[in-house]
Design goal:
Nucleotidyltransferase, domain 5, about 40% helix, 11 strands, alpha/beta, about 325 residues, six-stranded mixed beta sheet, about 20% strand, five-stranded mixed beta sheet, disordered C terminus
């Protein structure tokens, strides 16, 4: 049995998973998240802001104490979209090295996609009720990873720079947003998914699966949950009509009204409408009838890779293995 610690440092949040992994799978000991908004302003300035770096390192010091308390013997931290884009990412690398004793890995969009797929599909592939190929959508703060795959692993993947923080900062300047601001986000998302479709045959998926906070929050709102409940959200199915309805509802709300929603994390209040628009646009672009929400994601993929329990190799960058032509939805 191996006890590992996985850390995912994204544009909006930094998350920790400590787990034991044995022949029966991954056994979670703790899973934590802090909204630190590391990527605040990166789309505009190209640099990580000092305040964002400090918020991130404060959370990481807390995580380091938890890792030591739980006795993890292997630690891996990956940094994704915001750090990839930042000229001054060396400041973050130095801080992480001092706190954890290891360097963070600034991974490519392709590797991020592969790890997300490995983490998310464990509860899905092999179930008779889940049709393959699966299109996994990881809608983050700075980017969205799209991965097509199935029982044999990853067939094709692409990372595109549309995420809830990036697009909210770029376009949402009114509260509620104007129709023109909404249209600008949709235009960016459509362009990005058209680009992704050159590498990933996104309309050939039989099942659309979404991970990360945008998808799980939309699923919670569609289900009218009285509070955020990960167990009820995990593997729940939200129809295309429900995605559209929740998105329109969020766009019509003020910041205060969104903050008052029982399932809303405070750190998502100002970016959830942008994320929902990305999700709605993806559902429309793929023709999917519904999206399955998964609470398993890149953290699980990192942990499995640490223990040598996962292998989902990507094809060479820019290539795509042909998928079976199955109607989406």
């Amino acid at each position: 049995m191996t006890r590992v610690a996985a850390i995912d440092c994204g544009t909006n949040s930094i998350r920790l998973l400590v787990a034991e992994i044995d022949g029966t799978g991954l056994h979670e000991l703790t899973r934590r998240m802090e909204i630190v908004r590391l990527g605040a302003g990166v789309d505009r300035t190209g640099e990580l802001a000092p305040q964002a770096l400090e918020r991130t390192l404060v959370a990481l010091r807390d995580y380091a104490g938890e890792i030591e308390r739980l006795g993890a013997t292997r630690v891996r931290m990956v940094a994704t979209s915001a750090t990839r884009d930042a000229r001054n990412r060396g400041v973050l690398v130095a801080g992480v090295r001092e706190i954890l004793g290891v360097d963070p890995e600034v991974i490519s969009g392709d590797e991020e996609a592969s790890l997300s797929f490995a983490g998310a599909i464990g509860d899905l592939v092999g179930k008779a009720s889940v049709a393959t190929p699966i299109l996994l959508a990881d809608i983050g703060g700075g980017s969205t990873e799209l991965v097509l795959g199935g029982r044999a692993g990853v067939l094709a993947a692409r990372s595109v720079n549309v995420g809830c923080v990036r697009l909210a900062e770029r376009h949402l300047h009114n509260d509620p947003p104007t129709a023109a601001q909404t249209a600008a986000i949709v235009a960016d998302a459509r362009s990005a998914f058209d680009l992704a479709a050159q590498t990933v045959p996104i309309t050939e998926a039989a099942t659309l699966v979404g991970v990360a906070g945008t998808v799980t929050t939309v699923a919670a709102l569609a289900a009218d949950l009285p509070g955020y409940d990960a167990e009820r959200i995990h593997l729940s199915v939200t129809s295309a009509d429900q995605v559209a309805e929740v998105t329109e509802r969020l766009l019509a709300m003020t910041r205060g009204e969104r903050a008052a929603l029982a399932v809303m994390h405070p750190g998502r209040v100002d970016v959830i409408a942008a994320g929902a628009l990305v999700l709605r646009t993806l559902v429309e672009r793929t023709g999917a009838a519904a999206v399955v929400a998964s609470e398993r994601d890149i953290l699980d993929g990192i942990a499995l890779a640490l223990a040598g329990a996962s292998s989902t190799p990507l094809p060479p960058t820019g290539s795509a293995s042909p998928a079976s032509p199955v109607a989406t939805g």
